[in-house]
Amino acid sequence: MGRIVRVLAVLLPALLPGLTAPTAAEPAPLPWTGSWESAPSGTAAALPGAAVRNVVHLSVGGAAVRVRLSNRLGTRPLRLGAVTVALRAAGPDAVPGTLHTATFHGAPEVTVPPGADTVTDPVPLSVPARADLLVTVYTPDDSGPATYHRTALQTSYLARAGAGRAADEDGGAYPATTSRWYYVTGVDVRGIAAGSVVAFGDSLTDGNGSTPDTNRRWPDRLARRLSEHRLGVLNAGLAGNRLLRDGTGPSALARLDADALDRAGARVLVVFEGINDIKGTPPASDPAAFADAYRALVVRAHARGIRVVGVTLTPYRGYPAWTAAGEAVRQGVNAFIRTGGVFDAVADADAAVRDPADPERILLAYDPGDHLHFDDAGMAAVADAVHHALRHLLRPAPPGHPDVTVPAGPTAPRLPSAAG
C-alpha cells in the first residue's frame, strides 16, 4: 500500500494538473540604478590599519544599496577587511540603527586583485533621495597604492586605528579628515528609479570652483531638477581629463565603459570633454580629431541603448594657457557639436556662461577667479543648459503613469539636436 501511495503522489500532479494548487510566480526583482559615482583619478599612499569613512551624496533613493569599490589603479592585491554603509547624521556620525556591514558573496571581507573592481552584496538599507551615505572601508594591510578620487570637494573622515571601527555608529574614533574618496567608486540603489544620467567630463564636471561640502557641482544641481522624473545622476567628472589622449587618468575614450556605459541603469550620457586637449601640452589643434572622438563615443553609447547629449566647450580667456589659436579650435569644435548632427541633443553651456560683452570670457558672476571653472552660480547655469537639452530626450509616459521614460539609442526614433 505504501508503494502505491508513493507512485500516485508522483503521477497525479502530471495526470490531473487541474487538481493541484498553482505555484505563484516569483515577482521580478526591482532593477538597480546608479545613484552616486566617483571616477578613479589616481593613487595615494596606502592606509594600513586605518578605516576611511567616505561621505557620499546620493541622487535617487531606493530600498537597498550596493557599493562599488576599486583597486583599478593599484599594483598589489587589496584586502578589504570590512565595509559598512549607513545614513549620515552629521560629521562622521551614523543615524542610529542604519549601519549595516556589507558582504561579498556572503563573506565579510574580500581581496581585490590589482586592476580590478568589486561590488558588495545587496545591503537592506532604505535610503531617501539626496541623502548623505557613510561608506566606511577598513584596510588592515599595506596593500600598496590606494585607488582614490582626488577632487572630492567633500570632507570625509579617518580612524587611524581602524580595527573594529568600521561598525561604529558614533564617529568619535574618526578625528582626522580627508578631502579624497578612497576606494569607493559608486553606490547603486534598488527601487523604482527610472534610470540614470551619466555626467562625463573633466574638472568642470568634477566640480572645481564650487563650494566644498555643499553639493553644488552642476551634476548635483541637475539631480535636483530631475528628481520628479526619478532619474539618478552620476558624476563621472575627472579633473585634468582629456578627450583625445591620457592626462589625469585615461582618456575619455579609454575610460568610457568603466566610468559610464557599464554603470547600472545608465540611460543618457552627457559629454562635456575637450577643453583640456585645447589648452594642454601639446595643444590639440584639429577640430576634426574632436569630431572623430565624439562620433566614436556616440556610436559606443548607442550600441548600448544609451542616448548622448553633447555639451559645448566654455570660454577660458584670462586663464594662463589661453591662446588665440586655442580659441579658434574651441569655436570650431563648438560648431561641430551644435550642427554636426552626431548628438541626440545639445546643451549649449558656452552660450549659458559666456559674457555677452566679451564672449571669449566667462561671465564675471560665474567666474571663481581663474577664468576657467565655474562658481556655484555658474554651475547652476550649466545644469540649466543640460536640463533644457534633456527635455528633448525625456518623453512623458502614458496618462496616469508617473514615470518619465528615456528612449533607447539605436532603436528609438531619431531626435533632432537642440540646435535644430
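(the above was protein one; protein two follows)
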Amino acid sequence: MIAIEPASETQFDAKALRDIALAAGADDVGFVSIDNPALDDQRRDILEAFPFSRTLIAFVIRMSRDNIRSPARSVANLEFDQAADETNDVARKIAHALEGRGLRAGYPSMGFPMEAVRWPDKMWVIAHKPVAVAAGLGRMGIHRNVIHPKFGNFILLGTVAVGLDIETRDRPLDFNPCLECKLCVAACPTGAIAPDGYFDFTACYIHNYREFMGGFADWAETLADAKSARTYREKISDAETVSMWQSLAFGPNYKAAYCMAVCPAGSDVIGAYQADKRRYLKEIVDPLQRKAETIYVTAGSDAEDYVARRFPGKSLKRVNSTTRPTTIDGFLSSLRLAFQRGKSAGLNAVYHFNFTGAQKRAATIVIADRRIRVEQGLVGAPSLTVTADAETWLRFVGKETSLASALLRLKIRLRGDPRLFLAFGRCFPA
C-alpha cells in the first residue's frame, strides 16, 4: 500500500479549502471539526466510513425557487433531482481536487443510495443538516429545513470529509433566519408542522415520502398480496402505478415539499414577501392549499383527522407503514417519531416494559400532557407493566402475530389496567 504523506496546514488553510469548494461549484462553504460536540451523535458512523476524517467541509447548492414552488410535482421534483445530482457532483469534484493535492477526502451521497441494510434504523453516513448548522451555513427553521441567510431554504446540502486539521473553522449563525411566519404550518397538507413548533415525523414521512423506502415497501406488499390485476387496481390506481414507475425510473418523487416552497426567509427570497404579503399568499401559498390531490395517512392518525378537518377538498387514502422495528432498541428509539400527541389527549400514564430473551431490555415510557418520554431502566411507579418476549413483541408490532395469541401463550403479560395498553396503542397507529 502506498502511504500518502499528510499535507501541512500551511498549504491548506480555511481559505484554500474554501476556494477549492467554490471552484467545484458550491454556492457557500463552511468547516466543522470532527471533534465538534454537534457531531457527538454521528461521529462514530463518520469515522467508520472515513476513518481519516479531521475536518468536514459543508457546502450548499442553491436551487431554483420557482420550480420548487410549482404545484406541478413533476416540475418541483425535476429541480430536486437535478440539484441532488449537482450536489453529488460538486462533492466528488472537491474530493478529487483534494486527493490531487495529497489529502485524503471522501464524501457520502446527498441522499441516495444509503446504507439500506440498516433499514429501518439510521441509514445515512453523515447527517448533512447538523453539519451545515455547525458550519454556520444556516439554522433550522420551524419546518425542520436548514435556512441559509441568503438563499433561504432553497438549498441542498453536501459534506466532504477531509484528513486535515485546520486552525480556522466556522461557527453557527448567531441568529435564525426563520421568520416564524407559520406559512409552512398553513401549507403542510398533513399537519406535520404545528404552530407551537411540534413536528409529527410520521405524518410527513407517510405522505411526502410515499414513493421512497417504506412507502415503496407498502406498495410492493400490496402487489404481492393481490390475487389478480383486478384486485390490485382496487387498491392502487393506474395513476399511482405510473407515479411509482416514474420514481423507480427517474428518481424518487416527493409528494409535497410545500413547507420549503412557501418559506420566505433568506435575504435573496424575502423581498417579494415583504413587498406584498397578500400577493405572496395568493401566488405561492394558495395554489398549494387548493390543489386537488391524494394525501396518504395511516388509519387513526393525527394526520387523518387534520386533513379531513383542514383540507376537505383533498382526498384521503389510508396506507400501511412498513417502518417495522427489527430490534428492541429500534422500537424504543422509534417511539418519539411515531408518537401521535393528538391521540394521547387525556392520557397520563407510566409504562414499564420488561423485554426478555436474547434482546433483554428494561425501559420506562411516560405519556403525559400530550408528550412522551422514553427512559432506560424502570423508573417510578408504573401504571401498567408489560413483560414480553422480545421476538414476540417485534412480531406483534410488525403485525405478524396477534395480541390475543401472545397473551394466551404468555409471551406478553400485562400487570395493571389493560385499558391503558389499548390507550398506548392508539398513540402509535402506524
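Reviewer note on protein two: The radius of gyration is 24 Å.
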